[in-house]
Design goal:
The structure is a single chain. With 231 residues, this protein is an alpha+beta fold. It has a single domain, classed as Sulfite Oxidase, Chain A, domain 2. The protein is 19% helix and 29% strand. It has 5 helices and 13 strands. The strands form 3 sheets. Strands 3, 6, 7, 10, 11 and 12 form a 6-stranded mixed beta sheet that branches. A 5-stranded mixed beta sheet has the order 5-4-13-8-9. A two-stranded antiparallel ribbon has the order 1-2. Helix 1 packs across helix 4 (125-132). The relative contact order is 0.19. The model has no long low-confidence stretch (mean pLDDT 97). The structure holds the ligand Nc1nc2c(c(=O)[nH]1)N[C@H]1C(S)=C(S)[C@@H](COP(=O)(O)O)O[C@H]1N2 and molybdenum atom (MO). Molybdenum atom binds at residues 63, 109-111, 191-192. Residues 63, 109-111, 191-192 line the site of molybdenum atom. It comes from Mucilaginibacter pankratovii.
């Protein structure tokens, strides 16, 4: 199969996945809530740009587990497996050959800072899912970082078009301290749902808690519901 065929397949599969999750995505709180909590002008989903309890920052703080793994590009791999028909292990070149998406989105950290209008470039999780073909029974993903971090997401959150695996911020390679060479971003959920230094995405047929979710943070993490901790 040549490169053009490969890309066409991904695009076709992306459309099918989109159709499969469209209704569920429309019902998620960061799109559907009719009285979202927050302030400021409305974002593209009709939510106030500053969620309740958040303050806008210009600086970009760093949060990690006390260890920042350094992964040379020739050693970097991304494994996508679990409840999928076509598991893959991508090299850097494989990853960069996938359709590239540019987006501007906001970043809401549960420690109460929000950084707005961040310029990203990367590969959408939707396109990565289109590559591996999640099984009909798949409902969640668990993402793994090179630093042993994990975090879980439902597929209706993970397959939103603004959920990206980014390698570029503001036109520059993503800094190691912020999760470079590649991290995930989840603009419609608190930022801990986006694994820095991402190395594996496992599709699951049932929910499984990640590192912070297991330690009292919310499973769902909806910023406009102040949904920070599990009950
Ligand atoms: N692999 C990994 N990903 C992670 C974390 C981490 O410690 N390890 N911290 C999370 C938290 S709590 C937040 S708020 C964001 C912080 O991203 P930043 O350091 O680029 O601001 O990354 C999230 N992803
Ligand atoms: Mo965080």
């Amino acid at each position: 199969m040549d490169e053009a065929d490969k890309l066409n397949r991904i695009i076709e599969s992306r459309m099918k996945l989109k159709a499969r999750f469209e209704e569920k995505i429309k019902l998620t709180p960061s799109v559907a809530d009719d009285s979202p909590k927050g302030s400021g002008k409305l974002n593209r989903h009709g939510m106030p740009s500053i969620p309740i309890g958040q303050t806008a920052t210009v600086k970009w703080p760093v949060l990690d587990l006390g260890y920042q793994p350094s992964i040379p590009l020739d050693k970097w791999r991304l494994t996508i497996d679990g409840a999928v028909d076509n598991p893959v292990r991508l090299s850097w070149n494989d990853f960069m050959a996938l359709p590239q998406t540019k987006d501007t989105s906001d970043f809401h950290c549960v420690t109460t800072w929000s950084k707005l209008d961040m310029h990203w470039k990367g590969v959408s999780l939707l396109d990565l899912a289109a590559l591996v073909h999640p099984k009909e029974t798949a409902t969640h993903v668990l993402c793994y970082g090179y630093d042993t971090y994990t975090t879980n997401l439902s597929l209706e959150e993970a397959l939103k078009p603004d959920v990206l695996l980014v390698h570029t911020f503001d036109g520059q390679p993503l800094q190691i301290e912020h999760g470079g060479p590649v991290r995930m971003i989840t603009p419609q959920l608190y930022a801990w749902k986006g694994s820095k230094w991402i190395k594996r995405i496992e599709f699951l047929t049932e929910n499984k808690l990640g590192f912070w979710e297991d330690r009292g943070y919310s499973n769902t993490a909806y910023p406009w519901r102040n949904d920070r901790y599990s009950d």
